[in-house]
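[SOLVED] Need 3D model of a two-part complex

Original post:
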Amino acid sequence: MDEDARWMRVSDLFDEAVDLPAAERGSFLQRECADEPEVLAEVEEMLRAHEKAAGVLDRRALSQVGRTILSSVEKQLAGGATEPQPSTRVGETLGPYRLTAELGRGGMGTVYLAHDPRLDRSIAIKVLRSGIADNREVQERFLAEARAASSLDHPNICTIYDIGWTGENDPYIAMAHYEGETLDRHITSGPMNSLMVAAIARQVASALHVAHESGIVHRDLKPTNLLLTPGGEVKMLDFGIAKLRGSASTWTRPGLPIGTPAYMSPEQAFGEEVDPRSDLWSLGVVLLELLTGQRPKRSSPTEPVEWEHRFQLSDPADTQRWIPILRGLLAADRRNRTATASDLLEDLRGFDGADATVEHPLPLVLRGGADVTRPIEEREAGEAPGSFDRSAMQGLPVHLTDFIGRQDELARVRSLLGEARLVTLLGPGGTGKTRLSVEVARSWEEETGNWIAFVPLAPVARAEGVPGATLHALGIQETTADPVDAIAEEVGDKPGLLLMDNFEHVVGAAAFVSRLLTRAPALRILITSRVLLRVEGEFAWSVPPLELPPQDAPVCEASLKEASATRLFLERARAAATSDLNLDEEGLTAVREICTRLDGLPLAIELAAARSATFSPQSLLKRLERRLDLKSGSRDRPERHRTLREAIGWSYELLDPEEKAFFRRLAAFRGSFPIAAAESMGLTPSELDVDPLDGLEVLVGQSLLRRERNVGGETCFVMLETLREFGRERLKEEGELDAVLDARAAYVEGVCRGAADELTGSNQVRWFDRLQTQHDTVRAVLDRMIERDEGPQALSLISTLWRFWLARGYVLGGAERGKRVLQLPSAATPSAHRAEALNGIGTLIHNAGDNEGARELLEESLEIWRDLGTPSQVADTLSNLGWVAAMVNDFEHSRELSLEALSIQEEQRSDRGIAVARNNLGWVAYYRGQASEAQEHHEASLALRRKIGDRRGTIFAHCCLGLAAQIAQRLDDADRHVDEAEGDNEEVGDRLLQSLVQLVRGRVALDRGDFAKARVQLEESLRNWEAVGVRSGIAWAQDYYAEVLIRTGRLDEAEPVVAEALGHWQKLGARSFYARSVRLRWLIEMLRGPADDLTRLGGLQKTLAELVDTFEHVGDHISLAQAEEMFAVFFHELEPAESARRIGRAESVRARNGIPLPLSRQSQMQEVEAALRARLGEEAYAELVRNQNDAP
Amino acid sequence: MTEETEEPLGDVTRLLIEARDGDRSAFDRLLPAVYEGMREMADRQLRRERPGHTLHPTALVHEAYLKMVDQAKVPWEGRAHFYGIAARAMRQILIDHARRNSAEKRGGGWERTELKADGIGFDMANEDLLALDEALDRLDALSSRLREIVEYRFFAGMTEPEIAEILGVTDRTVQRDWAKARAWLYKELYPDG
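Solution:
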C-alpha cells in the first residue's frame, strides 16, 4: 500500500472511530482493520493522542515547547475540544457599527474595534458572551445598569455611547475607544513610582466619588479594568457590568460571590451586599499592587490582607505616607474602612506636599497603541557596534556657586527619573529649574554611572534647531540622516540622560523629543520648560519655590539656615557684602520677610542679596516693599511670575543710566560672548561713558550677568535667559534695538573677517574655538541678514563660516543656513563670494552625504569661476566635482573632470592642486580595479605631498598605495605602505586616517585568509569610522567585515551588517558600492537555503546575472570578476558549460586589469576548475575558457 | 522619514485585490510582502516589550491586518486570503526565530542577536518548535488541507467557521480535520505520550 492510500485509510478510520464512544472504538477497529497492523497501530496512536490533546494538557509534557506555543496550544486545543470559542464577528455590522478588528477576549465577552460611520470615528464594542444574558430579567437589569453607567460623565470613566443586542440576542455595549494599556500591563514592570500611583489613585477616587454619588458601585475594580492612556489619564472600564454577571451567576448558581477573588473585599466574599466601601477595598489592593509590583497574597478572599509588615518602598518617606492611606482602604471590617472616595481624595491631598503637584501624571513608557511613528526600516536593537564617545558630549554647565537647599526636590525628581523616561520640570523663569535639573542630572550620573549630555536650548532660535543642538550635545556628526535615527543608532542600548534646558520657546520640537524616546529606548530626557510639551510619556513636575521659614516662629539664624530660601539669601549676601554680615533679630526678620515677599524665587532672592553690599536687609526690604506694593495694587499675594519681573526691574533700576544701557545692549548676545563683544557695545552706536570692563564687573556683581569659565583662552560672559528677555524688552522700549543689532552684526562681521585667513593657518584651532564660543550670536546675526535680505553680507559671512561648520560638525545646520543665503534675491548676482559660498556649502552637503545636492552647487560655482576667469579656483572646483562624481560611482565623468583639473593645475604649477587631481584619478582607477593606473597616480600624488610638506596628505597617499597594491595582490607591498602610514600617523594622530589604515590591514589579512586578524582590524576600523562619522567609511568597513563573517560561516551575524551597509550606500547614492553589498547579501542567501531547491536556485541565478550587468555597466572590474566566479562556484554542477565560460571571462577581466585572484580564494577556485575539467573533459573546458579569454 | 513611503502598505492591499480578481502571481507575491511586514512588526513588538514578555502571534496577525490592509478597499474574501497568508508568514517567523536561536546556542553566539531570543519565549523550545515545523511539513505530504488548518488555527488564531470559509468546506469538516490533525501532530511530537 503506498503512503497516500495508507493515509486515506488511516484518516477515514480515525474519523469514524473518533465519533464513537471511547469504549466502542477498540472493537470497531478490530473489526475494520485487524489484518492491517500498521494502520491499526497508527489509528490507535492517534486516538490516544486525541484523548490527551483534547483533555487538559499535561504541562510537563509540553514544557519544552516554549511558553507562547504552550498557551497557544492549550487555548486552541482546549477551545477546540470542550468549549467552542465564539467565532469572531470582525467584518459584521452591529446596528450602525462595523466591526473592524478584535481587540481582546475576556471572561465577559469580546471587545472589538469598530467604526461608527455616522460620526466617522473609531469606537470600541464589547459583545457579552453568549448565554450570559439570555434571560429577560437579566437583560433588563443589564439595560438599567448600562443606562446608569452611561449617565456617569467623568473624565476618568469610560464613556458609553450606546447599547444594543446582536442577532443572537447577546447584548453589546458601544463605548469610547482609548489608546493605552490596562494597569495589569504596567504592573509586570515592577513597582511603580509612588507619585504616579498617587496620581492614578486620585483619578480613580475622583471617578468613584462621582459614581458612588450616583448610587453606582463598580463591584469589580481591578487592574484589568483600569486603562492608562498614553496621555496619562486613567479610564475606568466596565462600570456596573459585574453586577450583570452577578445576576447571571445568581440566576444559575445562587450564592456565588461575584468579583475577582484577588481584589474582592471580605464582605463581597462572604456574599454580603456590596457598597461603595467595597470598591475602596479593591482600589486599596490595586494601589498596593502598583506600589510593590506584587499582588498581595491571602489564603482566601474572606481573609484580610496581610501587607503591613512587609510593606517597604524604596523611599522610607513614601512608605510612611502610604501606610495610613492603605490602612484606611484595606481595613477588613468595612466599618473601620475609609468611608468615601472623597475621604480618600482628602487623604491623598496631603500626600505629596502642598506645592509640588503632579500636574500631568503619565505612564512610564511609550507603549500602548499601534506605534505608527516608527519607520519600517529599522535597525535591530542592540546591534550598534562601536563605541559611544563620551568625551565628545557636552557636559553639564559648571555653577560656581553652591547648590542650596532643594534636597527634597532633588530626591523627588531623581526618583521620578528612575521611573519615567521623560520628565519636564515646569515653572516660570527664575524658579531655579535649570539649576535643579543640573543637580538632578549630576546625581543621576553619579549614581548610575550612565552618560549624560546637556542641551542648552536658550540660544536656539527655532524649533528646527533643536535636533541639531541635540546632535551637537551628543557629539554626533550631522548628516543627512534623520537626526532621530542618528541618535538612536549612536545611543543604542547604552542608557543615558539628555538634559534639555529652556524648552519653552521651541515646543514645536516636542514631536522630535517624542520620536527620540520611541526610537532610543535606552534614553531618558529631562527637560526644563515654562510650558508642557504635551507628548506621550511626559511626566511633568512643577518646581516649587524655595522653602520659607515658618512665619510665626521666632527668628534665629539657625532657623533661617534651615529653610532653603533664607539660606540662599544669607549665603549670597555674605558673598556680596564686603564687611561681615552681622545680623541682629531685626535684620534676620527682614531677611525672612524679603524672601517671603519674593515668594521664595531663587533668581529674585539672588538679585536682592547681591545688593547687600550697599543695603542692610532692613532697607532692602523697605525698597522692595515699595516696589512690590506699588505694582501689586490691592492684591494681597502677587503671582510669582510678576514678583520675579518686579525683582529684576528693581535690580535694574538701581543701576546707573550708563550701566543700564550697557546691560540692555549685552542682551543682544545669545549664549556666551567674550569681552571684545561687550566692548563693541560700549563704543557704538552712541559712546557710552562706561568702561566695558568696569561695566561687566558691576553687572556680574549684581547677579545680572554670569562669568563663565574661560573658553578657548578668553573670558566669557553669559546672561540668564530670563534676564536677557528683560533686557531685550528694555532695548525695544528705548528704541535702540535696531541700532544695537546693527552693532552686533558689525562686530560679528569683524570676527569673521579676522577668521577668514586664520582658519586655514596654524592658528586654526584657536579661531575655531573663538567662533564656537560665539556661534549662537553668529547664527543670530546670519538669520537677521537672511530675514533682511542682506545677500552680499551674508555670502561674505558664510564664505568664511563653512570651514568652521565643517570642522566642528555643524554640517547640516550650516548647509541649511547656507542654502537659505544662496536663495536670497540680493545674493543671486554671480560674484567671487557667491562662488566661494557655493563651493563651501557644496562641500558641507557632500560631507553630509548628499552628493547630488553637492554636485548642483559645485557646478554653479564652477560656472561662476569660469566666467570670472580664475583658473586655480576653476581647477579646485573641478577637483571637488570629480570627487563627488567618484562617490556616486560616475567613474567616467569623474575621470574627465579630474583630468581637466589636472591640466589646469599643471599650467598653474600648483603642486597641491596637481596632487589633489592625481589623487582623485587614482581613486577612480582603484574603484574600477585598474591596479597599475591607480598605483601610478598615487605615487605621483605621494611625491608632491612630500614635497610640499603635507603630512596628512602623505599618510593618506600611503594608504591609497596600500589599497592599489592590495587589489594587485602585492600584499607585502601593501603592508609596507600601511606600516609607513601608521608610523607617520602616530605623530599626527588623525583618527580618520587611522580607520583607513585599519581598513587596509583588514582587507589584506582577508585576502591572505587570516580571518581572525581581519576581523579584529575591521572591527577597530569600523569603530573609528563611526566615531569620525564618515558614512562611506562605515559602509566600506561593514562590507569587508561582513565578508569575513560570511567566509567564517557566521551568516546570521553578517546579515544585519550587510543590511546596514546597504542603507548607507543607498543614502550616499553610490550605485556600484550598493551592488557590492548586494553581492554579499546574495552570498548569505545562497549559503543559507537548501542546495537542492531548484526554484530558489533559479531566482538566485537571475539576481546574480543582474549584478554582473551592474558591475559591467559601472566598470567595477573587481566585483565583476568576483560575481562571475561566484556563478561558477555555486552553479558548476548545474551548469558546467556556462560556469566554464564565466571562469574564462573572470580570468580575462583579472588579467586585463592586473587584479589577480586573492590567495584566500585560490584553492576553492581550483577545486571548481578541477570539477569542471572532470565533468566537461580537459579539452572542452579549455576551449570554453579560451573563447571568453579571446573575446574583446 | 522617507523610509515610510517604502512600507508595503499599499502593496498588500493591491495584491489582495489583484489576487481576488484572479491574478495568481499576485497571490504568490503576497507571502513575501506579508512576511516582511509581519517580521518587522514582530521584531518591533519584541523590542518594545520587556524581557519575559512574549510574542502574541494572534495579536500580531490582527495587527498586521489592521496595518497592512486598507479595510475599506478589501472585501471579506480579501480578508480571508490575508489571514491565510498571514498564518503562513507567522509560522515562518516563529520558525526563523527558533532556528536562529538554536543556531546561536550551538555556535556560541555573538552578543548582537541574543536579545530577541528571550522575548519570544522560545529560549528553551527551539528544537521542539523546529520539530513541529518539520512535522507540519510531513503532514503536508499527507494532506495539505490538514496542514493549512493547523496553520490557520495555530498561527493566525482563526476560528473554525473562518477557516471553513477560506477553504470552502463546512464547519463540520474543519472540526473533524482539526481533531485529526491535532491528534496526528501530538502523536508525532510526543511519541511517548
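Edit: The first strand of chain A starts at residue 93 and ends at 94.
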